[in-house]
Amino acid sequence: MTASVVSIVYVNDAPAAARFYGDLLGMSPSFETPGYITFDLGPGADLGLWSGQFEDLSPDVPRTSEVCLAIDGGRPDELNATFEQWKSNGVTILREPHDAGFGLTFLAADPDGNRIRVAPKG
């Protein structure tokens, strides 16, 4: 059986969220519908942005998932450069770079309030 893991992030506006994540990831979506958009992250891994518009999910529901973007090598200078770039691009920063025991990490949020953690690939 061939399987792929799709991490789904619930958003209020899938196209707007796709523009946000596309800018962060430096890539274009691999699949698009009005309410569901995915990014191919490599063999067996996808990021799905789902508005829930077909299930009558209210935009008022708090979004609380967390996506972790793992940086190869996990060098502090690379993580700090990503932090500075995101900050200068107006990304909401929830927690600045800090050592969390597994390495340097920081926490940001997408426009829907979903958490985005940047950490070393471990």
UniProtKB/TrEMBL annotation:
InterPro entries assigned: Glyas_Bleomycin-R_OHBP_Dase, Glyas_Fos-R_dOase_dom, Glyoxalase/dOase/EhpR, VOC_core
Matching SUPFAM superfamilies: Glyoxalase/Bleomycin resistance protein/Dihydroxybiphenyl dioxygenase (SSF54593)
Chain ranges passing through the membrane: none
Domain VOC: 1-121
Protein name as catalogued: Glyoxalase
Organism: Streptomyces doebereineriae
